[in-house]
Structure formats: structure tokens, C-alpha cells
Task: structure prediction
Amino acid sequence: DIQMTQSPSSLSASVGDRVTITCRASQGIRNDLGWYQQKPGKAPKRLIYAASTLQSGVPSRFSGSGSGTEFTLTISSLQPEDFATYYCLQHNAFPLTFGGGTKVEIK
Amino acid sequence: QVQLQESGPGLVKPSQTLSLTCSVSGDSMTNDADRWNWIRQSAGKGLEWIGQIEASGYTNYNPSLKSRVTISADLSRKQFSLILNSVTDTDTAVYYCARRGRRGGWSFDFWGQGVLVTVSS
Result:
């Protein structure tokens, strides 16, 4: 299985901060990666697909980068509605696997 | 707009069978570039992909669950189903159905709201 190591597992930040979350794959996955936001009691919502393509309707403060084994989700200016848990997903090989999540909390 | 909705019992006894159905609207389910998936989320193991089915009926399963899982589809009813046998308390989770496919870049683009299934006697 491809292991997706996500860091940090949690972070505290203020509104307006720039936030960066990283996912590392245990082997190369090209750009076969998505990023998701999940709020309590809700299903995950896709933010980014193909590592760097912004999902329609998602604010442009979200961006993704990377290829191969290292990927980054950046929130350029954190907004109150962005406090949530974020997950990466690799779909390069079966079984599909998720990162362990990053909980973004209010400082 | 594609919508998915899970349904099924919220409580299953240990050693019995978990059975869930996902109803799809806004999509015919017949596009051979789409995959219809089950995913679960528990406090202990985070998000776990269970498996998927294509319009042809071809399936892929997570090896960790493969011996206990069956995913099937009824395209005429626009539904696909999950059966998980011999459940234990570690199968307690929120179960989601989701679509992925070529049109959506192959990651999950549409999800159901999720259904909590508790395994308990």
C-alpha cells in the first residue's frame, strides 16, 4: 500500500495567516492526489484535484502544488470558515489511501 | 448536480452482516469512465477506502477488507450496495458512498452525507 504521511497533524493559526500542509507519499504517485476539507458531521469536500487544479467554486486562497512524492496545500489567508480538518488522497494505485489529516484550529 | 444518499441500518450485531445502499441522482451511472465507491471513517483509523464498482460490474476492493466485502450495482435503479460480513466493533464507522472518474480527475468529486453504523450487541 502507498502510505500518505500528512503533517502537521494539527496546527493553530489566526485569521489572515498563511497555512501550509504537506503530504508525503511512500512512493511516487505522479500528480494523482486530491485535497479535501472536512467539517464536523459533514462529508469531505474536495478542494484540489490532480495535485494543483482548484475545484470549481473553491476560493482562490486555496492552492496545491507538488508531484511525485511531496505535495503541499496552501491557504494564503486563513478565513474563519477554513477552520476544519484537511486530508490528502492518493489515487495512483490500489488501495486508494488517505493521509491522517490536519486539524486547523483557531489560535 | 450529482447527489448520492446512503441508507441502511444504523445498528448491526457483532458477527452479522452490514448492508448499505447508495442511491444516485443526477447521473445515469452508466458512464464507463466513472467508479462508484464506498469509504468509511472511524475515530481509530481515519478515512479508509473500502472498494469500488464500475458500470461493467468490475470491482476493486481494499485487500484489508476483501475477504468480507461485496459491492454490487443495480444500474436500472441507480443504486449500488455494500455488504460487509462478520462485523466486529472495529467496523463501527461513518460509511460514505462517493463517485470518482475521468471527468472529475479521478479523485472523489461527489460524496453522500454519510451514515453512522454502530456494531454492538
Summary: The first strand of chain A starts at residue 4 and ends at 7. The two ends of chain A are 36 Å apart (CA to CA). The mean pLDDT of chain A is 97.
